Amino acid sequence: MPELPEVETVRRGLERQTKGFEIAKVEVLRARAVAAPPTPEQFCSALEGAQVKGWMRRGKYLMAALQRGDEDAGHWGVHLRMTGQFLWMEEEKAPCNHTRVRIWNQEGQELRFVDLRSFGEMWWVPPQTPLESVMTGLKRLGPEPFSEAFDPAYLGAKLKGSSRPIKTALLDQALVAGVGNIYADESLFMSRIAPERRSGSLKPAELKRLHAALVEVLTTSIGVGGTTFSDFRDLKGTNGNYGNAAWVYRRTGEPCRICGTPIRRDKLGGRSSHWCPTCQGG
Ligand code: ZN
Question: Taking ligand 1, which is a single-atom ion, which protein residues have CB atoms under 5 Å away?
Answer without folding.
Answer: 256, 258-259, 261, 276, 278-279
